[in-house]
Amino acid sequence: MTKKANFLKGFLKENPIFVFLLGMCPALAVTSTFETSLGMGLLVVFVLTMSNIVIASVKQWIPNDVRTPAYIVIIATFVTVVKMLTEAYAVDLFNALGVFLPLIVVNCLILGRAEAFASKNNVVDSAIDGLGMGLGFTFALVVIGIFREFLATGGIMFGVYLPVTENPITLFSLDMIINLFDSGFHITEYGLKVFSLPPGAFIALGIILAILQFKKSQKDKKAAVAKMEMIAEKKKIALEKKKLAAQSLAKAGVK
Amino acid sequence: MSFTLFATAIISAMLINNVILMQFLGVCPFLGVSKKSSSAIGMSAAVLFVMVIASAITYTLYDLVLYQYGIPYISTIAFILVIASLVQFVEMFIKKTSKSLYKSLGIYLPLITTNCAILGVSEGNITNIWTSTLPYWDGLLLAVTTAVGTGLGFGLIMFAFSSIRERLDASNVPSAWKGVPISLVVAGIMSLAFLGLAGII
Questions:
Q1: Is A250 within the bounds of a domain?
Q2: Do A145 and A165 fall into the same domain?
Q3: What's the total number of domains in chain A?
Q4: Are residues A202 and A182 in the same domain?
Q5: CA-closest candidate to residue A26, choices A18, A15, A17, A34
Q6: What is the pLDDT of residues A39-48, one digit of tens each?
Q7: Which helix (H) or strand (E) holds A156?
């Protein structure tokens, strides 16, 4: 596997949430807005990359029988670092994530990557794998977050939780389009509030997974049709060859 | 400490703040081990068992050790280590003492270490119940009560969901929704029903 393929595999082909259903708890719990999903994703990228690097570099000194507790302690150390940094520099995000920040420790994705990749590969590959898988996880969280926030409020806000801008800015809102025709309209009053509540999380993720499954079944169908066509064509060619052979044989017989 | 306080704690942990449908803790076993109702019951019994012991130990550890010596920030590392070794210990203990219990719970125990519900309840006990002035025994009782309620709520939802899922397998679902997507929508509708319980306390 090349380094580029190693990095890119986490986005679609081996996406932790959409394909393997790993780390579902944060995928449901912190995705009520775009920004909390982004924040959670970035924290996971940091923890996953750092723990992959450390585990790959110390793996030869860890006895095989106690490797899981050892990995968990390494991961928990980085989670504690991240927890303290978030509390110091982004306290709004810290409060919004709540108990799910320490729960990064038991995220199956991180222990899974440590077990499946970092314990078998060298440091550079493990770092690339952690970065790619983490960004794939972030990508999935952000997709769910945008979907839910858009349905719940009709727009996407930025700057509420992350300490990047002084005041929150609206990245996109349906108000911008509607106010061209009718001023004084507020889409937030008509949003589907349920999508920012727990039931909406399950339903939104269900809809996204159904769309992906539909696309995959379409692709499979297309592939099956293409295969059938190819087989039919080959049969045709074979038949023609047979005919030609029979003709030439007949000619030879006549002569 | 009155009876109503404990009743409120149990009802609130079991139904109102249901661990799966409202707090999203333990969603992995919820989707993974709920294909048959027998395995769902085994899993929830194991979770209830470990959750009660783990929250008692972690509360004690936090109150009597970590807080006393001024190192509460290390709680995540300490708790996960306690839970991992506790699960291993419980597994060995059950294996030695009761063969029949080991047969029914044994295969679910190793899965529990990475079950976020256990660590989530332990951390939640610290943030919601623990204060530096609360007497140790009162806090411990409340923490254990919350753990019992949470474990029962987990079992209730696991059992209900696995029964629904057994029926779902026999029904004619559109191919795009088959498997996990329709299960998530079913969970969403169950969650919507539990949202209605929010007003009872």
A1: yes
A2: yes
A3: 2
A4: no
A5: A17
A6: 999 999 999 9
A7: strand A155-158
Q: With a threshold of 0.95, does the pTM exceed it?
A: no
Residue A192 lies in a domain: no
Domain spans of chain B, in order of start: 35-158, 171-201
Please give the average per-residue pLDDT across A65-75, as a whole number.
Answer: 86
Nearest CA distance, A100 vs chain B (angstrom): 8
Core vs surface per residue A210-228: b (16+ CB within 10 A) or e? bebbeeeeeeeeeeeeeee
Q: How wide is the angle at C-alpha A196 spanned by C-alphas A41 and A139, nearest 5°?
A: 25
- The yes-or-no verdict on residue B130 having pLDDT over 90 is no
Residues A176 and A213 occupy one common structural domain: no
Measured between alpha carbons, how far is A157 from A148 in angstroms, rounded to an integer? 12
Residue A175's φ and ψ, nearest 5 degrees, are -55, -40
Domain boundary among A187, A209, A243: A187
**A106 contacts in B (CB within 8 Å)?**
80, 113-116, 119
Numbered residues of chain B with Cβ closer than 8 Å to any chain A Cβ = 21-28, 31, 73-77, 80-81, 84-85, 113-116, 119-120, 123-124, 127, 175-185, 187-189, 191-192, 195
Q: Measured between beta carbons, which residues in chain B are less than 8 angstroms from residue A198?
A: 21-22, 24, 191, 195
Domain that holds residue A218: 197-254
pLDDT in tens, B13-42: 888 889 989 888 888 888 877 788 888 888
Interchain pair A202, B180: CB under 8 A: no
Best B91, B114, B129, B157 member to test A by mutation, with max A CBs in 10 Å, is: B114
Among A156, A187, A218, the domain-final residue is A187
| Contact check, Cβ <8 Å, B76/A84 | no
Query: A131 and A218: one domain?
Result: no
pLDDT band at A254 (very low <50, low <70, confident <90, very high): low
Complex confidence, ipTM: 0.87
